[in-house]
Each structure stands twice: as C-alpha cells, then as structure tokens.
Design a protein that fits this description.
Elements: E1 16-18, H1 37-41, H2 43-49, E2 54-56, E3 92-94, E4 100-102, H3 104-125, H4 128-139, H5 152-169
Parallel strand pairs: 1-2
Antiparallel strand pairs: 3-4
Helix pairs in contact: 2-3, 3-4, 3-5, 4-5
Length: 170
C-alpha cells in the first residue's frame, strides 16, 4: 500500500499500488468520505513521480460487512457496519436496471488519473526531472507517497502549472 510503496519504487518494474484502511492520518491520500477531495486527487501526482503503472481498488462495489456475513444498504451504511472507514468499501452506488451511480470519490480519482496523463504529456515535451521539479516547487516540498497536497488551492495550482508548461511548448 502507499505507506510502504517507497521501499519498492524504482526497484520493481511495472509497479502497482492501492489504498487501504491505514491512510486515515497525517496527510496520506485516500478516498474516505471524511477526507477532502484534494487528498484523493493527490494520488495522480504520486503515481506519476514514482512511475506507478496501475492502481488496485478493492472496494468498487462491495456492499457487505466484514467477512461478507451481512449485506449492507450502501445508501445508509458507508462503512460495512463500522468495519472500515466511511467510503472504503465502495466507489459506486447501485442504480436501477443494473447500472451504478458514481460517487464523488470515483469522479475525483478520475481527475487524479487525468492529472497523471497531463504530467506524462508534459514529460514528453520537457523531461521527467523538470516536470517533477515543477510539481514539487508548486507543492512546496518534496513529494512522497506519505504526503499529499494540503489544500484544494495547492492541488489545482499543480495542475495549472502542468497545463501552463504544456501550452508553452505547443
């Protein structure tokens, strides 16, 4: 998971990562309901910096409690009967006719992936080192998997800086 990934980054080809219940303190990113969206969105710049190629999300539509003993009602129970932090067991809500409603958390995660794509485009115009340097300059400190943006303004400023760099070369 993210708290341990730096031990593997740079040493494991085609590395993947995931969120787990442990990222509920400090400024670790995650998608829990009690966290602001910028903490969720920070994963994009972290995945970019560390060349993460995939993300595992265990809780896409898990509507159960611990050990799947009981089914939960996701519109009234977002923690699997207090088993995990609110927002951890699912990213979508059931909708009529076998469809789903996206949660804000999954929409913001999509934004993080879009940020990562923009950073890769920027890298094709500059270099990885230059892009990471600009991210960290705007971020205000070195970026690790154990840190994330500390405000919406910072997260948006990072994306705007990437957009500016791309525009300057196109």
């Amino acid at each position: 998971c993210e708290a341990d990934i730096e031990d593997f980054a740079g040493n494991v080809p085609e590395l993947w990562t995931y969120y787990c219940c442990g990222q509920d303190h400090d400024y670790l990113p995650n998608r829990f309901m009690a966290m602001p969206s910028w903490r969720n969105r920070s994963i994009g710049m972290q995945m970019y910096k560390y060349d993460i190629v995939g993300f595992l999300q265990w809780g896409y539509n898990f509507y159960g409690n611990m050990h799947s003993v009981n089914e939960i009602e996701p519109y009234t129970d977002v923690s699997g009967e207090h088993w995990v932090p609110a927002g951890d067991p699912f990213s979508v809500y059931p909708a009529p006719h076998g469809k789903v409603f996206e949660s804000l958390r999954i929409v913001v995660f999509h934004d993080a992936l879009q940020d990562m794509s923009a950073m890769k485009l920027c890298e094709s115009l500059y270099s990885k080192e230059e892009v990471v340097a600009e991210i960290e300059k705007t971020f205000g400190e070195e970026l690790f998997f154990t840190t994330c943006a500390k405000s919406e303004a910072t997260m948006l400023a990072i994306r705007e800086r990437i957009n500016e760099m791309i525009k300057a070369k196109l």
